[in-house]
Amino acid sequence: MKSLLLTAIFSLVAIGAFAQNNVSGSIIDAETGEELIGANVILEGTGRGSTSDLQGDFHIRNVPSGTYQLKVSYIGYQTIRTEIEVPIEDVEIHLAPSTLLTEEFIVSATRASETTPTTFQVITNEELDKNNLGQDLPILLKYTPSVVTHSDAGAGIGYTGLRIRGSDQTRINVTVNGIPLNDAESHGVFWVNMPDFASSVDNIQIQRGVGTSTNGAATFGASMNIQTDTKKEEAYGEVANSFGSFNSWKHTVQAGTGLLNNRWTVDARLSKITSDGYVDRAFSDLKSYYLSGGYYGDDHVFKVNVFSGNEQTYQSWWGLPESKLENDRTDNYYTYENETDNYQQDHYQFIYTGKYGDNWKANAALHYTYGRGYYEQYREDDDFSSYGLDPVVIGGETIESTDIIRRRWLDNDFYGGVFSFNYVSDDGLWDLILGGGANRYDGDHYGEIIWARIAGDTDIRDRYYDNNAVKDDRNIYLKATYEVKERLYLFGDLQFRQIDYTFEGINDDRRVLDGEESYDFFNPKVGLSYETGEGETWYASYAVANREPVRSDFTDNPITEIPRPERLNNVEAGIRAQKGNYSYNANFYYMGYKDQLILTGQINDVGAYIRENVESSYRAGVELNGAVRLSPAWTLGGNIAFSRNKIDEFTEYVDDYAAEEFQQESFTYTDTEIAFSPSIVGSATIDFKPVDNLEISLLNKYVGDQYLDNTENENRKLDAYITNDLRLSYTLRPRFVKALEFNVKVNNLLDQEYEPNGYTFSYYVPGESEGSRQLVTENYYYPMAGINFMAGVNVKF
After folding, report:
1. What range(s) does the TonB-dependent receptor plug domain occupy (predicted)?
2. How far apart are CA 445 and CA 184, in angstroms?
3. Of residues 25 and 277, which shows the higher confidence score?
4. Which end of the chain is more exposed for a tag (fewer CB within 10 A), N or C?
5. Is the predicted pLDDT of residue 19 greater than 50, yes or no?
6. What DSSP state is assigned to residue 743?
7. Which neighbouring-strand residues pair with 148?
8. Nearest to 403 by CA among 383, 374, 385
9. CATH assignment of the domain containing 55
10. Domain that holds residue 78
11. Residue 447: CB partners within 8 Å, gap ≥ 6?
């Protein structure tokens, strides 16, 4: 018994010692000596691994003694394996850049670099993955500086959007691999058409302000440059499933071959997302896929990307009237069972990038996007005349209106090409990029009556309106960065953009549309940046952007009174720094608008509300963001923006139904707040890692008061709000899979009632006494869900 007891004691001591070994070290660039952040470090065959931190250090704890293969990989560098004997002192791993050409140049022409004098931030796929449990991409970006997000259905799935510095989606330029994504006519981006796209994104660069020249719609508040998945050297597979409140589900399967024959890769993803929505009946049924094939030579890369999204959502566009905010926040105005939006969008990209000698790189891409779909509506007691139909006579009675069901269709093609050439001088002083693109949009807009209670002289699928629009968008730009003296850089960027837009046919209000407009825009940018050599970069720049009106400005305004183009003058100045355990950014901006287009209440000749130019308006502010690692367990981060957003003068028009004949009354305002432009926006994040592989994060978001229109009326306002989210992530590395990840996200932890979006309108009605009138203001809101959750399990092979 004594021998057995002693054996057991010694065994326990040995096991205790066995578990105390730690493998630590650092990952270094073999050429520059710089630390590499985010490198993957794995002890093969053990299921244990780590990622290098902000100092390039890694730590793998509780490793039994023995001999192991340590594998280290990092994008753009050669993967290495080295044999180590545990226990071991700290190891220093030197990674050499890959001899194969990388994909970074695909997006570099439309991106800011570390020396570019503008305000930007890069969001990595690791950051996106932490929150990617089914909500749309705008919701995943809600914690980034100056961003405000919203969701029609209230749960972040379906129709969602974001504003940056108060600028909405129509003023934010978005590209995918340098290829324009914004709709050519409305300038909007409809993320619902790209469900689960975040699962195929490698990184996103958000430039606030005008930023650098890019392809597609004008950057009039910010730009988002998205790069899809890049080369992975080893085969992989992943199955990700999540579920949550409102019967929300996300299923994703993706896999890749890794590098075949040291040259070829194939990556694929298939996704399905469903949700009942927070708002009553506001369901979403979303499907998507992503397929990519690539050839990687020493000096040339060819890629083909094909991705598609198919969506059906029940409409919740009407919003919630103010009277129901207190007691019926989930109410939906629509009751017809098939009041749905249905759309599919297919994207095809063929991309080439090549290296020519030591000085030249080239990039070119051809693209084609095919979109088609409709939204279906039940309309009660609509006039026959609204559809170009004659009244129906039955039994001697003339019937001039009936209930109908209609579909409004979009069927469009968008195609073209983009290119760039990059030259770097032998001495490294000059960095030049010549780029541009030519794209065409060809879109059909038409409406059908698919049912009528009293049909009259009409057949199913008869089109009551039908029009076509063709838009050509061409641009060319030249960017130059010159190192004036050591670490001082001069930057210049000249873009010329030309637009030809033609439209013809019958509009949905039965007016004849026949028009043609052309625009020539010159958009210069200039700036300076200085690197101190201590991890800091100071910068200042001035940039100009011009923007043409959107489709509704042409179709709703009388053709003889098309609004003028908008112009933006943008000043950016600031500092960004990365030092040891902390990083920070601080910047000032001024965005001065000439002829900004806003809704004023003015109506056209058929009663539709139109946008008008206001001569002068501006946005100015200070943005601060940073992060500090207090210890291996604790990291704090956050951002805050203070801004002033003003219109110098504008005239509001209010409908007057109290007059003997309908008229509009005008009111002039000066120095008022721009709608949907909060003066304070901020977020804070606390990350806590109590043990290996477990991360607990508290995420907070604050958005100040926002006005629903430009009158700065306190009765037409979205109240300030603060939300708190809790995120838990735990990773296991069993021997039979690479990783087993468990994620839980509790949104709106304190059950805050808030509304980040809405709209308003006012009108006069007869008062109680004869000859008097009363002003009625109707506010509509898009409420967000109270406390809710999403939980997921990812299995990585």
Report:
1. 114-221
2. 14
3. 277
4. N
5. no
6. E
7. 163
8. 383
9. 2.60.40.1120
10. 19-95
11. 406, 407, 408, 409, 463, 464, 465, 466, 508
CB atoms within 10 A of CB 305: 23
Give the integer Cα–Cα distance in Å for 65 and 214.
54
Residue in the structure block whose two tokens are 């629509």: 334
Is 7 inside any structural domain? no
Q: How many CB atoms within 10 Å of residue 314?
A: 23
- At residue 462, the pLDDT reads 86
What is the per-residue pLDDT across 359-404, written as a single tens digit (0 to 9) for each?
999 999 999 999 999 999 999 999 999 999 999 999 889 999 999 9
Q: What is the pTM of this model?
A: 0.89
Alpha-carbon distance 158 to 193, whole Å?
A: 9
The answer to whether residue 496 sits within a structural domain is: yes
Residue 9 in domain: no
- 3-state per-residue secondary structure call for 28-83: EECCCCCECCCCEEEECCCCEEEECCCCCEEEECCCCCEEEEEEEECCCECCEEEE
pLDDT in tens, 591-605: 999 999 998 988 876
Residues in the chain: 797
Contact 389, 457 (CB under 8 A): yes
DSSP E strand boundaries for 486-608: 488-506, 512-531, 536-547, 566-579, 582-603
Per-residue pLDDT at 437 exceeds 70 = yes
pLDDT, mean of residues 135-162:
96
Question: Which tokens sit at 600?
Answer: 């004023």
Residue 28 tokens, joined: 């270094």
Sort residue 33 into left (φ over 0), alpha (ψ -120 to 50) or beta. Answer: left
Pair of tokens at residue 679: 């003066």
- What CATH number has the domain bearing residue 120? 2.170.130.10
Calpha distance 768→781 (Å, rounded)? 29
Do 192 and 341 sit in the same domain of this protein? no
What's the number of domains the chain is made of? 3
The sheet with strand 57-60 has its strands ordered as 57-60, 23-29, 91-95
Q: How far apart are the first and last CA of the chain?
A: 47
Q: Is 462 exposed, middle or buried (0-12, 13-18, 19+ CB in 10 A)?
A: middle
Do 582 and 695 fall within a single domain? yes
Q: Which two tokens stand for residue 313?
A: 């959502």
Assigned domain for 6 exists: no
Do 528 and 411 lie in one domain? The reply is yes
What pLDDT sits at residue 460?
Answer: 84
Question: What is the 3-state secondary structure of 571-599?
Answer: EEEEEEEEECCEEEEEEEEEEEEEEEEEE
Residue 96 structure tokens: 């050499």
pLDDT tens readout for residues 723-738: 999 999 999 988 888 8
Tokens of 561: 């009174």
